[in-house]
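Illustration: Iron dicitrate transport regulator FecR.
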Amino acid sequence: MPAAGGSLMFTASAPVSSPIPRKVLAAAAHWHVELQCGSADAAAVQAWRDASAEHERAWQLLQRLDGQLGAIPAALAIPALQAAQQRRRAAAKILAVLVAAGGGIALGQAGLQSGPWQALTASLRTAPGQRRHVTLADGGRLEMNTDSAVDVAYSATQRRIRLHQGEIMITTASDPRPFLVDTPHGVIRALGTRFGVRSDGDGSTVSVFEHAVEVRCTARPDAVRRLEAGQQLRFSDTGLAAVLAMPAHQDSWLRGMLVAADWPLQQLVRELARYRRGRLVCDAGVARRPVTGTYRLDDIDAVLESLCASHGLQVTYFTRYWATVAARST
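Result:
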């Protein structure tokens, strides 16, 4: 992480073969608490970081985990024995987070180390079929689509959104701090923009509506791909796909609509399944039937009923939460 007032830079680095020593992690935790409490100034912290590469690695790891560390209570700044003891306990808790993270993250690594528990414990979540609007601390806007999990980590030197799963739309506010979106597959840097990010188990997709973004995948943080307005990119944790023209109606979900233009039925059913609890699948016998239409996302069962009536289909319910779309029986 850069010094206060500087810009965040992603640089290539040699692979890290061993974890950061525990004593270095402990020192990083100590400096973090002292800086937050006002007991140490930024110059002293910077001098410690500059003293060795291990120190800088530890500090970078701490900043990557900033959203999990929690705020340091203001009372800890009181120069009393009790406050000093509380600061030591706070540093010990931060050290535990750093050690649990492994301490072996390279400086150039991009991407969010996420799993099911991070999504379940995320500070911002939506259920299947739910959408949510969030006004960010800097005045920017965060729109969350169905079944999404997000953490927001703003600090003095950067703004960071951690998308664990699902889909979001970001409209950034004017602010000198870098704006970054982490997914399990890489990191996106906004360049004064409006853009959407969708993340699933196989990869993440970025769609740019205004201005531009830069994208890095986890395995190649030194390889940067710039996207301009009207472009879209799919990437995994191991590589970046080709830049494509963004399909029409990518943001229709913001209006509670899904627009299909000559889609295979399987694709439509897969999209509808995101907005409904349980399992919804398409039978292989009708998977390639072309479908065109505009569908409301607030009542998926009604959409399925209409789809069946107009396309000669039927929905078979094994249970309330397990259904299959297939050809209508004759």
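Reading the tokens back as a structure: The longest strand covers residues 186-199.
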